[in-house]
Amino acid sequence: MSSSAAATPIAIALAVVKTLVLIVGGVITFFAYKAYRRTRQPALRYLSLGFGLVTLGLVLAGMLYELLNVALMTGILLESLLVLAGFLVIARSLYVS
C-alpha cells in the first residue's frame, strides 16, 4: 500500500475529528457566553473567550494549510499560539472576582 493511499483514511479521520472539535468547542463557547449574558459575571466572559480561542486554535492549522496554502509548520505555530492564549484567558477566568 502506498503512503498516499494510507494517508487518505487518516486525512478523513483527521477532518472528522477536527470538525467534531469545532462543533463541541463551539457549543461550549456558546453556553459559556450565554451564561455570561445571563449573569454578567466577568469570569464567564473570560471563560467563553478562552474556549473560543482554544477552539479556533485547534482547527486553524489544517484550515490554513488546506485553504490558504500556508506552510504546515507556520499553521501549527499559529494554532499553538491561539491555544496558549486561550488557556491563559481560561486561567485568568478562574481568578476574576
Describe the structure.
This protein has helices spanning 3-39, 42-68, 72-93. The protein is mainly α. The protein is 89% helix and 0% strand. The chain has 3 helices and no strands. Helix 1 (3-39) packs antiparallel against helix 2 and helix 2 (42-68) packs antiparallel against helix 3.
Key features of this structure:
97 residues, mainly alpha, 3 helices
Beta-strand segment tally: 0
Could you give a short account of the major beta sheet?
none
In the predicted model, the low-confidence regions spanning at least 5 consecutive residues are none
- Cα radius of gyration in angstroms: 16 Å
Strand content: under 5%
The share of residues in helices is over 70%
- Overall mean pLDDT score? 90
**Could you spell the SSE succession in H and E letters?**
HHH
Please tally the helical runs, counting DSSP H or I stretches of 4 or more residues: 3
Alpha-beta content class:
mainly alpha
Broad shape = elongated
Terminus-to-terminus distance: 58 Å
SSE blueprint:
Elements: H1 3-39, H2 42-68, H3 72-93
Helix pairs in contact: 1-2, 2-3
Produce a short descriptive summary:
It contains three helices and no strands. With 97 residues, the chain is mainly alpha-helical.
